[in-house]
Amino acid sequence: MDFDFEFDDDELEQDDDAELSEDDRRARSFPKFGAGKRIGKKFADTWWGNAWIDAMERIALDPEQLKKARRYAFAGQVGPITVSPGRISAGVHDGDQYTPHDTVVRIGTLSEAEWDRLLDKVAAKAGHIAALLDRDMPHDLVNTADDAGVRLLPGFGDLEPECDCPSWDHPCRHAAALAYQAAWLLDRDPFVLLLMRGRGEAELMEELRQRNARRAIAADDADALAGTPAEEAYAAPAVPLPEPPRPVTGDPMALGPLLAEHEAAGLDAEALGLLAADAATRARHLLAATADEVLAPEPDAWQDAVRLAARMPRSRAAKRLGEASGRAAELPRAIKAWEYAGAAGVDVVDAVFSPPKELVAQATDALREAGEVDGAAPEVKSWRNRWTIGRDVQVRYGRDGRWYPFRKRSGEWWPAGAPSPDPADALLDLPRD
Known about the structure:
Elements: H1 22-26, E1 28-30, H2 47-57, H3 63-74, E2 81-84, E3 87-92, E4 101-107, H4 112-123, H5 126-133, H6 139-147, E5 159-163, H7 173-188, H8 191-196, H9 201-225, H10 230-235, H11 255-259, H12 269-288, H13 291-294, H14 301-309, H15 316-325, H16 331-350, H17 357-370, E6 380-383, E7 386-389, E8 393-397, E9 403-409, E10 412-415, H18 423-428
Antiparallel strand pairs: 1-2, 2-3, 3-4, 4-5, 6-7, 7-8, 8-9, 9-10
């Protein structure tokens, strides 16, 4: 089973109707999750996604409702989710009915004063802005918010579920299922949490840009008035560097919305936003890289096209990259491989080579043993660096020494999970359709 989740980077299209509130204009809509689809082995992959789930589960009065809610979330019984300041909402249906229940989970928004304090703190640290643009929420950012007297992540009692079902449970299984799936949104994009707290991504980035501009002007004025003697500067104690940022891929920065007004002049704001976000990500990777990583060879043109397209797989820019590479039809599968394992994942899609005979024999035995059911071992066929188990499951050996699971879809083999150091582990971790 693969995870075909697409983010809608644009805010909901709204009429210019004066009756629309500012919160309505900030709202974003996300497509529903299909049945059986999830991210990773745990319910939430990130520490902030798990913090969200913990805040919801701590108010639950009936653990049985949470079990049902998890089944609802995995079964795809939650409809498209709308996120706006102070609330998330969706229709959630029971398995035996077609009419969904109107379900909402509310969370308090930050006041203007709290936003002002928080943004001043964030603007003062470029690392915080870079982390958010990489769809990461480091602990240091949350600590910075705490220092400003602002709580970003919900705590006990901060989430208020509502549902039109007759259940008296708090939360009911419908509201809990919505909250569980909201954790998947937060895993992919911490800006979703900031929107719940009252600010959209483009609006936040513009406010931070203005603060940085004012800060730069003030610094220039101060430097013009006074400087620091060289002896004093060299005598200052060394300041330890912060922990290197965690390299992650994600959606591009909010440059596109800010430049959209220039589209008529021929500027492709979406593509420029993608390139700027990619440059920021690569700069962060270089700051955190070892000497060997810095000197590593650059990816080839195809891998570089896949890397860029993976940031916005449904965008015009990704389509143009596929056309320019001459491999447009292969791009969706390559993007999936990149999401699981980066350049090594893309390489293993095409790579065909002959591993040592001893490794072939050991892998074949391990895969037969792992797939054995009631004493019957599955059929395992090996060809070069590929082992096919049954009709629609395959494990491939990569040049990096790791094992990559694949599953057949419409006659083609698609990457189906993260690589493992052992062939049996790759098979056991393969999600079921």
